[in-house]
Amino acid sequence: MSTAPAPLRDAADWRADFPALRQSVHGRPLVYLDSAASAQQPGAVIDAVASYQREDHANVHRGVHTLSHRATEAYEGARDKLRDFVNASSRSEIVLTKGTTEAINLVAQSYCRPRLQPGDNIVITHLEHHANIVPWQLVCEQTGTELKIAPINDRGEVEVDGLYGLIDEKTVLVGIAHVSNALGTVNPVEDIVAYCRDREAAVLIDGAQGVPHLPVDVQTIDCDFYTFSGHKMFGPTGTGVLYGREALLDAMPPWQGGGDMILEVTFDKTTYNELPYKFEAGTPNISGAVGFAAAVDYLQRIGMRQIADYEHELHDYMVSRLRGVDGIRFIGEATRKASVQSFLLDDIHSHDLGTILDHQGVAVRTGHHCAMPVMQRFGVSGTCRASLALYNNRDDVDRLVAALEKAREIFG
Ligand code: PLP
Questions:
Q1: Quick check: CB of 56 below 6 Å from ligand 1?
Q2: Residue 7 has pLDDT above 70, yes or no
Q3: Whether 251 contacts 115, CB under 8 Å
Q4: From atom 6 of ligand 1, which residue's Cα is the shortest distance away?
Q5: Looking at ligand 1, which atom is closest to the CA of residue 206?
Q6: 6-10, 25-29, 161-165, 240-244: segment of lowest average pLDDT
Q7: Residue nearest to atom 5 of ligand 1 (CA)
Q8: Does 370 qualify as catalytic in the annotation?
Q9: Is the shortest distance between the CB of 187 and ligand 1 below 6 Å?
Q10: Exactly one of 140, 223, 370, 384 is catalytic; which is it?
Q11: At what angle do helices 304-323 and 286-302 cross, to 10 degrees?
Q12: Do the Cβ atoms of 396 and 361 come closer than 8 Å?
């Protein structure tokens, strides 16, 4: 967080940084409202990856030659930037993964599995992405322990008292999204962490939808683990971070074995590398890390506070415009929201609606959003989801609304 934010620029300038947004789809200028699935990349990220591939590519850590040094510097430089971005206290706490999913599985298998005893439990909430459900189901099955689910209310907010009621002396870990991908709900993670800290339950925050839209400081949140993905914050796919408190990571066994995570291997005994390399077996995604670092530079140049404020204002505008569309039904109306609005229109199937919007150049997500329990909670099979990023503007929202009006005409 040390980079000083750039002076306020017009959102149109930010949009111009993203080459993919200059194209037309089905003869209409593209309106991209699917950043919660994967955000577009600015030229700075694309160029950083291309330049690395052209000039610096080699394997990291083991080489004595110049290109290997350059690749190592770039890869480890990315770790330093990511440490700074979420304000971890040490670079040892930043494990580079292929995404949020891998990071959560790592915690389930390396932190929880050795600790879980029959009678213990893990607590999550009803609004989680499958990535913050299935790894816990797997580890609970493996250890014969219980997965408890905290309820959400009709607005799509976690019922915090219900959550607290599930946490007891047998709770090993609480896993909760910072921001729900299906509903946009921002959870009160600092309060939840404080409650869990008093009861000695570890907390993992799934920050896949938090980090791209809100300033995140893991020391202020005081969580034990925080996970996020590069491709949702303008970086490449196949990149992500597990932030873990150093003392916890240190005590955890490696998750995967192979090159780079060892100090010495004999057939009698293998000794493991120090943090964070103990958790990074095999050749990592080096070019991805280079792009990830460029994405962090990009976000820091604008400043996360400025991004959050801009998106908040645009989200309010989107909600008020959508509210004016006849036949619209919102799924997710939490008081604190970020970036996302899920909805249905009349009785049009979400995939049909998404296809009609696409033909008008408007890209939204349709279906269950990898959050089937959320859909079950609201009694629907899927929704349309419009999600915002800093490159969107009011014209995009107006185009979405016009496309929805058109869909109503088509479906009569
Ligand atoms: N958690 C949330 C809240 C998400 O939105 C996503 C992706 O949509 C994930 C986890 C999984 O992220 P990834 O597929 O990058 O591992």
A1: no
A2: no
A3: no
A4: 208
A5: 1
A6: 6-10
A7: 181
A8: yes
A9: no
A10: 370
A11: 80
A12: no
Kindly calculate the radius of gyration of the chain based on its CA atoms and give it in whole angstroms: 22
Cβ of residue 224 lying under 6 Å from some atom of ligand 1: no
Whole-number Å distance between alpha carbons of 98 and 373: 25
User: How many whole angstroms separate alpha carbon 218 and alpha carbon 242?
Assistant: 11
Q: What type of residue sits at position 13? A: D
Instruction: Go through the domains of the chain in sequence order and give each one's CATH number.
Output: 11-42+303-411 (3.90.1150.10), 46-300 (3.40.640.10)
Between CA 313 and CA 295 the distance in angstroms is 23
Residue of 100, 234, 339 best suited for mutating to test ligand 1, as the one with most atoms within 8 Å of CB: 100
**CA 90 – CA 94 distance, rounded (Å):** 8
CB-based contacts of 332: which residues, under 8 Å, 6+ apart?
Answer: 155, 156, 180, 182, 183, 184, 185, 340, 341, 342
Report the distance separating Cα 169 and Cα 120, nearest Å.
Answer: 8
H or E element at residue 328: strand 328-331
Handedness of CA 42, 46, 48, 51 (dihedral sign): negative
Q: What is the pTM of this model?
A: 0.97
- For the Cβ of 176 lying below 6 angstroms from any atom of ligand 1, the answer is no
Is 216 near ligand 1, meaning CB less than 6 Å away? no
The closest-lying atom of ligand 1 relative to the alpha carbon of residue 179 is 3
SS3 149: strand
Average pLDDT over the chain, rounded to whole? 96
Do residues 301 and 1 touch, judged by C-beta distance below 8 A?
no
- Give the three-state DSSP class for 320: helix
pLDDT at 2: 46
